[in-house]
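Async update (no meeting this week)

Hi team, since we skipped the sync, here's where things stand on the single-chain job. The sequence we agreed to prioritize is pasted below, unchanged from the tracker. I ran it this morning and attached the output directly underneath so nobody has to dig for it. Comments welcome in thread, and please keep replies under the output.
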Amino acid sequence: MDIQAYIESGIIEAYVLGAVTDKERQEVECMSKIYEEIAAELKVAASTMESFASIDEVKPPAHLKAAILEEIAKSEPKVISIAGNKQETSNDDHTTETISDSTNNNQSWLRVAAAVALAVAATFSYLYVNNNAQLTEIRQQLAVIVDSRDNVSQELEVLRNELSQTKTELAFLQDTATTSVPMKGIPEKAASALATVFWNERSSEAYISVASLPEAPAGKQYQLWAIVDGVPADMGVLEIQLANHLQKVVNIKNAVAFAVTLEDEGGSPTPTLSEMYVIGNVTS
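Output:
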C-alpha cells in the first residue's frame, strides 16, 4: 500500500472534521493502528484543528451575567398584604385582614424560573452560533489547505515526469550508438530553420529535436520524412510544443536523408515537396 498517497488523499483531514462515512472512519482508525505514519499524521491534523479552534475563541459577553442577576432581582417573590379599614354599616362589622397570597407567590417563582431559562438559552444560543461560525471557518481554511496541497502534489508529479523524460533523453543522446543528422532550412522557405534527427540502430529508436521552425498556419502541421532508396517514408507529424524535449518518431532503417514538410493537419501519405522547410543528408 502507498502510505504517502493515502495520507495525501485528504481522508485524514476529513476524519478530523467528522466529514467521513462510518466505513471511512473505521478504515482510518484501523490504518492508524497498523501504520505509524498514518497515526502521526492523524495526531498532527487533530492538533492543527485544535489550534484553529482556539485562535478566535468567543466568550459570553461580560454584561450577560449582570443581566441575568438583574432579571432575578426584579422577579423576587413578595408577600402581598391587604389592609382593609374598619367600616361600619347597618348590617355587619368588618375587621382588618392580612392575606398571604400563595398563588401570586407561585407565579413569581415561575417568572424567575422562566427568566433564568431564557437567559441560559440565550447564552447557549450565542455560544452555538459563534462556535458554529468558527467551525465553518476552520473547515473552509482546511479545505483551502487540502486544495493547496493537492495542487502542489500535481505540480510535483509534473516535475517528476519531466525529470524522468529528461533523464531518458540524456541517456539516449549519450549512447555511443546514437547518430545525429542536422537538417538546415530551405532558403526559399525558412533559411534560419533548424531541426535534428537522432536515431540509434542498436535500440531501433529515433527522435527529432526542433530548434526553429516557423509557426504552422491553422489547419497545417509539420511532418518528418526519411528518404530510403529515393522514396520518402513517413516518420510522423511533429508536436512543436515539445520544442524543449525530444519527440519520439518512427524509426526508419537505411535512411540516406531526412526532411520536414508542411502538410494538412494530421499528416499526408506523400510529402508536398514545394512545402519542404528543412532537409539533411546522412553522412557515413
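Quick observations from my side:
Residues 178-281 form one domain.
The helical segments are 3-7, 11-17, 22-34, 36-55, 63-74, 102-174, 187-190.
Reply here if anything looks off.
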